[in-house]
Design a protein that fits this description.
five-stranded parallel beta sheet; binds cytidine-5'-monophosphate; alpha/beta; Rossmann fold; about 220 residues; about 45% helix; about 15% strand; two-stranded antiparallel ribbon
């Protein structure tokens, strides 16, 4: 970790509101917003397009090694291009939702993508959202948040966005996998957002960052 660059880690289950919070925190702090889930999604999207059985670990690993995953800075966040193609909204498709947790459970996939996630810190202060950011990717950061909400509220929020996503199944796979499962880091600031609106959640995060001396 480059000592002068800082990380705000935001973890939590599917559809807990991490992205909305991370976007707002990034705007307020000027830190680069990195959505690590998009990397797992982009690989899954690309593997599905190449007709690869996502349950076949070695094929998925070979595929990862054969593609170019390029990050493009757009405003304050990052877009991912695969071999020059922009997957756009397809990253959130039902097919990707259905397979991404299987792909993300592969040890070699995680070690490669975690390596790339850590590289962002070499160029910028970052707000990174995901499942293992505070526990594995940047365990040394003092700025860790775990954003939660009840399964009912999360399902409602996802339905509001449109799209088909079996959140319970994804959470089960993400929490039970052997490598870097979704956990609440011991030193994370946990926010149950079930009965809060976005402004209130962002306010809580910023107030904690203020108390920790990161922002004024
Ligand atoms: O955050 P999002 O729901 O878009 O992430 C999609 C999937 O990517 C998760 O369900 C999980 O399987 C995987 N993921 C992960 N580790 C991260 C971020 C996402 O395993 N840091």
């Amino acid at each position: 970790m480059v000592p002068s660059n800082k990380v705000i880690a935001i973890d939590g289950p599917a559809a807990s509101g991490k992205s909305s919070v991370a976007t707002r925190v990034s705007k307020k702090t000027g830190f680069l917003h990195v959505n690590s889930g998009l990397m797992y999604r982009a690989l899954t999207w690309s593997a599905l397009r190449a007709d690869i059985d996502t349950n076949n670990e070695s094929k998925v690993i070979d595929h990862l090694n054969s593609i170019e995953m390029e990050c493009i800075k757009s405003n304050d966040s990052l877009l991912l291009h695969i071999n020059g193609n922009d997957p756009g909204e397809e990253l959130k498709s039902e097919e990707v939702n259905r397979s991404v947790s299987v792909v993300a459970a592969i040890k070699e996939v995680r070690s490669e993508l975690v390596k790339r996630q850590r590289e962002y810190l070499l160029v910028s202060d970052i707000v990174m959202e995901g499942r293992d950011i505070g526990s594995v990717v940047f365990p040394e950061t003092p700025f860790k948040f775990y954003i939660d909400a009840s399964p009912e509220v999360r399902a409602l929020r996802r339905r509001g966005e449109g799209g088909v996503d079996d959140l319970i199944e994804r959470d089960k796979l993400d929490s039970s996998r052997k490598v870097s499962p979704l956990v609440i880091p011991e030193d994370a600031f946990v926010i149950d957002t079930s009965e809060m609106n976005l402004d209130e959640v962002v306010e809580k995060v910023l107030s904690e960052l203020n108390q920790k001396g990161l922002i004024t």
